[in-house]
Amino acid sequence: MQIYLPIAEVSVNAFMLLGLGGMVGILSGMFGVGGGFLMTPLLMFIGIPPAVAVATEANQIVASSFSGVLAHLRKKTVDIRMGIVLQIGGLIGAGLGVILFNFLKSLGQVDLLITLSYVFFLGIVGTLMFIESLGAIRRARNPEMAPPPKRRQRSWVQTLPFKMRFRTSGLYISVIPPVLVGVFVGILAAIMGVGGGFIMVPAMIYILGMPTKVVVGTSLFQIILVTGFTTLLHATTNHTVDMALAVLLLVGGVIGAQIGTQIGTRLKAEQLRVLLAGMVLLVCGKLASDLLLQPAELYSLGVSGGH
Q1: Phi then psi for 184, rounded to 5 degrees?
Q2: What are the UniProt keywords, alphabetically (predicted)?
Q3: How far apart are CA 305 and CA 197, in angstroms?
Q4: pLDDT at 153 (0 to 100)
Q5: What is the pLDDT of residues 209-247, one digit of tens each?
């Protein structure tokens, strides 16, 4: 069933969009990632312009993350105080990111920036996650292998001022690192149309020292407000949010997030991470090849704005 998307100005299959939304929703529930880092490139692959894909995907992440958070709140695995601190940084970052996005859009370079950002971040995150997951699987198979030494979080994070107690996470740390992490993720949300979970989750574990059991729920909680704010800014300044596209992705995403939360509790964490890393590297490879290979049409005719 073909449907015309007015803002994207293309016709696509409605069931394919529902399926994409559902698949990314499942990932959201399983890993605590908004799923935008896979959805935005997938939308670009099926012909959605990058600027529209970024702005609309931020909208879809809000719904799938909200659905996932409800499941985690029932399990009491959300550190709301930490989530609020991360959101403050995220809102600042989202504002800065949209300003940068608009500036590059005026120069006509925004599509290249989006693609390069994806290749860079997906390449790094996918590789690191893959190496770490393979090590974890090897250790699980050979119990006599020495586990990696546990590093106590007595790092530079502990020496900073403005300390605050985060009871759910069992932490007493400065609010500066969470705010900085939030700012960085907010910028990514605006430029790449991602919730930033693929950066946020490792940062919460390794930099902030949060227990893994509260990381997924807190990451999803933080994502909701930041991506909601990003969507609002894109809709009002760029007019690149396609509501027809967003609704189809939303429906699939909300259903998928509930399924993903159930699957995530049944599978082993190492196996899940290897699967996610493999998908990340596949998408990264496809984007990189699209950048490097000569396109079928060397020239395309378009009407530049203002002429």
Answers
A1: -60, -45
A2: Cell membrane, Membrane, Transmembrane, Transmembrane helix
A3: 34
A4: 46
A5: 777 778 878 888 888 888 788 778 777 776 777 777 878
Residue 83 pLDDT more than 80? yes
Nearest to 79 by CA among 200, 190, 162: 200
Q: Give the C-alpha separation, 79 to 268, whole Å.
A: 23
> CA 298 to CA 295: how far, in whole Å?
6
Nearest alpha carbon to residue 276 among 223, 204, 201: 201
Q: CA–CA separation, 127 vs 278, rounded Å?
A: 9
The b-or-e profile of 185-199 (16+ CB within 10 A means b, else e) is: bbbbbbbbbbbbbbb
* pLDDT reading at 125 higher than 70: yes
Residue 289: both structure tokens together: 């090849």
Closest of 10, 2, 31, 15 to residue 257, by C-alpha: 31
Output the 3-class SS for 233-287: HHHHHCCCCCHHHHHHHHHHHHHHHHHHHHHHCCCCHHHHHHHHHHHHHHHHHHH
Spell out the residues 6+ positions from residue 302 whose beta carbon is closer than 8 angstroms to its own.
Answer: none
